[in-house]
Each structure stands twice: as C-alpha cells, then as structure tokens.
C-alpha cells in the first residue's frame, strides 16, 4: 500500500505543480541568465492564438482587421482596373464578343451566394477565410504579372476574356470574406441575448469606414497616377503590375499581421458534425419547420431583412439613377483638376457618411449599456434615419437642379460640393440595411448570407433604374426638361419602406451566442449532436435546426 498523504500536503504539491506549469523553469546558459522568449516567438505565438479575450464584449474593431479591410479594398479596386485594360480594343470587337465579355465578366456577382456558401462550408486547418484569400491573391497576382509582362496581350480577345474572367472570380473571393470576418469577430461574445443592432451595427460601420478609406486612397492614387486619359502618366499595363504587387502585400499582411482567431472556427467537431453535414441537415429541415407551429425556419429573419433591403433600394431614386445624366452637361466641360477634385470629394463624402453612422451607433450602444434604452437603435429608428438622410440628399440635388434657371448659378462650384454631400448621405442611408443584415446573418454562414444581401441590393438597383425611367416617362419629363417636377416625388418615395420597418425583427434569431459575464466553453462534439439547447445558453452551438 502507498502511504497516505495529508490533504494539506496533497494540495501543496498540486499548487506547486500548477505553478511549475504556469511559470517555465529557467534553463542554464553560459552566462547563467535564464533563457527568455525572443520577441519574434512571442509575436508569432500571439498571432497563432485561436481564442479571443472573452472578458470584454467587442465594441471597437481591431486595427489589424481594419488594416486588412483597407488593404483588401485597395487590392480589389486595383484588380478591377484590369477590366479597363482588357477592353482597350473594345471598339474593334464584334457585337457578339462585347455581349459575351460583359455577360461573363460583369455578371459574376449573381453567383456570389454560391461562392460564399463554398467559403462557409470549407475548412482548412480549422480556418474559414484566410486560405481562400491567400489562394485568390496568388491567382490574381499571377494574372496581373502575365498581363504586365506579355506585350500586346490586350489585342488577343480570347486571352483577355479568360484572364478577365479569372480575375473577376478571384477578386470575388478576396472581398467576399470582408463582412464575414467582422461579423465572426463581433459574434464571438455579445452583451446580452436581447441586444439590438447598435453594437454589431457599430462594428459594421467601422468596417465600412476602413473600406471607404481604402476606396479614397485608391481614388487619390488613380486620379493623380493616371491623370489625363489621353496622355496617362501610368497606363493600365503598369496598373496591372501595381495590382499584382498589392496582391502580394495583402498575402503578407494576412499571414503576419492578422491573428488566427479572426478566421478560425472555434467549434470542436468531427465528420458527423462538420459544416457540410450540418448544412445538409438544415436543408432537410427547412420544409418541416416552415409548416411547424413551434419551430422557426432557420434563416427566416435574415430572409425577411433581405426582402426589406430589396424594397428599400428598388424605389425610384434620383441620386443613383438620374443625377449623373443631368450633371453631365456641366461636368463634361470640367478641367482635369476639377474632375479629379470631384471624384476625390465624392469618395471623401462616402467616408464621412460611414463615420457619422459609426459615431451614432457608438453612442447608441453606450446609452443602451448604461441605461438600457433599447429604442435608440431599433429597426424603425435607424430606417427612419436612413430614409430621412436619403431624402435630404435628394433635396440638396433638387436645390442644384433649380439653380439651372439662374444664369449666375455656378455649377463648377456646386457640383463638387454636391458630390461630397450626396455621397455622404448615400453611404449613411446604406448602413441601416447593412446593420440589420449583419445582426440577422446566420452564424457560420455569414459569407453566403452577405453575398445574398449583395445580390439583393444589386438586383434592386437594376429594378430602381427601370422604375425611375418609367416613372419619369409617365410624368413626361427627362433629365433636361422638367426634371425638377419628379424630384419632390422621389423624396416622398424614400419613406415608403417605413411602412414595413415596424415589422422588422428587433433581436437576433440565434439566441445561442456566448454572453458576456456568463460561463463559456467551446462547443465539443457531444454538444453539437445534442438537440436539447438552452434558449439563451452561452455555449456556441451548431446552426442546425432541431
């Protein structure tokens, strides 16, 4: 028999063993000093950490994610310049070739939900987004370097068609994970199961600030690097080289400047609980839960939000459909410097609009956290703010249209100011729909969800253009004759979505997100297979419908 130990002795040995595990033993060296980790190993260990700090709810977007959004937006915009390089000899193409090129290269957006679902279902070393981004950047870098190094490649239609199509698809896989990374970060820990869209809307608006800043940087660079279209300083061939370099820089940034837990799936699952199997079970249960009186169909609230976004953007509008046509008679006479200033001010206005919404969501979240006032960021309030700001931007445009009757009205001064103001209003008005979609996006399917949202917004824009044209034809007006008569009606149309806004869901569909201040453990295989779940539990669960 082994000698018995007193509890005090046993506990003392246990404490000592725990201390030994927490504090590494110093190793001897020639000079007798204890060996310490180098800053490289410490930095790399921090980068490869798979768990975020669960003591505080994320309210501010980390600068590492923000820098990733900035760089990826610049890379995305630079890659799209290859489309202009590919259409250098557009006038020499046949009508069939022109239609083929545009149908293949500029309609890939509508396959975004399918591509997004592929990104959501595939895991490589438990990572969801980083492998896809790296592969897409490598492909785009190769395409850009080929376009730069091959002389007269733009004269070969078949080659440019294939390269442009590859570039479009690869670029989609670069920008698709952007919103998903932000939502995945924000949903790791929530304030409460009944929090509104203020916090996640604030994170999304902060992400939009970084992305719009990337667009502003690209606009400034392109306007001054390209210069006069007739005599560009840097032509599109050299732009392809710069785009390839941007892809390489993005790869380095994703590998060495972003933390691993931004991309990891923190659940411990086996083949039976893997994402493709869970998705298959969800599809099988959609029909059953659609007719059930007790269960809610998975993703139902998100689909309702997507339908609302379609209605929100499909109405007749002047700022996105007719403003450019009306002002073209004045902008075509702008000097090069004034045209550059007009473009830069438009991008700056979009940045200010996103920043204004981010500040509003920040103060709304602070108010809710301290006083519990939920109405500050409920769907009705934020949609009313978006509609009002959109209508106010239309009113500013209406003011400029009325100035056409005054011979002394200077459009060379008004149009750049209008670009700043109108783009700020449009970006602010876009954020409510984005925030609501982010709050209701199904967990672990964020990429597919946001591509579906993008398709809805894009399709609504097509419908809005057709409806606006038909509406103006019915009034007997055009962009140059009686245009002002349609603008007050356009302002009224902006408030039509408010009829539906009170029915929008106020809280998340998924009530299983980990809540701050409560116990939290990563999901294991047994919990993933168990159908019994606490309605407001803190354990992350699979997105299967029980």
From TrEMBL:
Annotated Gene Ontology cellular component terms: membrane
One of the Pfam families matching this protein, by short name: BT1
Segments of this protein annotated with the region Disordered: 1-36, 518-541
Membrane topology term: Multi-pass membrane protein
Transmembrane feature ranges: 61-81, 101-119, 131-151, 163-186, 236-258, 298-315, 344-363, 375-400, 420-438, 450-471, 483-504
Compartment annotation: Membrane
Keywords (A to Z) from UniProt: Membrane, Transmembrane, Transmembrane helix, Transport
Keyword Repressor attached: no
InterPro entries xref list: BT1 (IPR039309), MFS_trans_sf (IPR036259)
Highest taxon in the source lineage: Eukaryota
Signal peptide: none
Composition bias type Basic and acidic residues, residue spans: 1-25
The family this protein is said to belong to: Belongs to the major facilitator superfamily. Folate-biopterin transporter (TC 2.A.71) family.
Identification of the protein by name: Folate/biopterin transporter
Source species of the chain: Leishmania tarentolae
